[in-house]
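Hi U.,

Before I forget, here's the chain from the pilot set. I'm dumping it here mostly so it's searchable later in email.
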Amino acid sequence: MTDLADLKTELLGAVEGAADGAALDAVRVEALGKKGRITAQMKTLGGLDADARREAGQALNALKDEVAAAIEARKAALEEADLEARLATESVDVTLPVRPQPEGRIHPISQTMEEVAAIFGEMGFTVVEGPDIETDWHNFTALNIPPEHPARQMHDTFYMADSADQLEGAAGKADGDDNAGGAHLHTGAMPGEGPERVIKLLRTHTSPVQVRTMLAQEPPIRILVPGRTYRCDSDMTHTPMFHQFEGLVIDEATHMGHLKGCLIDFCKAYFEVEDVPVRFRPSHFPFTEPSAEVDIGCSREGGELKIGAGDDWLEILGCGMVHPKVLEMCGVDPERYQGFAFGMGCERIAMLKYGIPDLRTFFDADVRWLKHYGFLPLDVPSVTGGLGQ
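Structure:
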């Protein structure tokens, strides 16, 4: 049997002298592989007597363990040295300016929400948010929407599972009872102040936040309410989930002229067109009286839509003076206070301003679309610095 002391010195020297991972692996194969030098020594043990075999076997196993441990230690040292070398060559100078072409983009909806908030923020409005899951009372009843109104029916509104079962049962009862009416479908009372049954749904507009604000806060009130809303509708200009903005002003002196001035200033600032024509058409909403729809002027020459002076009009939002019944339902004295409210679709005004033809593309998660219509992260909208940078 070869002198183990010499073999140990030779193998440990080879391990220590390995310059990289490949050289170290070659040493491992030479020492511990199937045809390695220690393995070859193990194969000679069968020709020894019992005592000699036991002694030689112990010595070879000890050598094998020592060489294996040395290989692992050398491997760790080489990996650490390699990491240090990489860190030295891949260091980042944090004093360098940001890259001029960042890959990320701000979604047009996020940008539009920031733009609208910036405009109304300059007018003194405070941004307020509320829950997506609402009660029938906050979403309909408190807003003077009658029980038989089409918006309250199940084909227009997403009701929670338990509430939908209750509505179906009530509807069936109504169909079989000549004296029953649509009122059976809804409690008409604020939760906790009447029947224990509470109908829950995905809010169909952000107006319930106006109700919650009036219930919790004494006038004067001036709020802007952004958020997601939900309706059973889907086509090129409608999606089951979309975004809205609603504004509410309540005080002792507000009148229709204030509403018109506020919205005219908004249209000029948002579309960044100083002479954009704005008109108010009489309309009807259960929660406002009088009510109006707002149109802005546009032209379609050459098949291109352009906001501003022209021979055509585009509807963009609805508005009106808050109905006295809504004020009364929310605990506000209609003899002392009055105010106005307005609401608009975030996607709609984004499509008009940025020329986006299909509403559904907002939710396609297409990186190519976002790269085309998106905004740079540093393009923070402001009334003084510009909105759509």
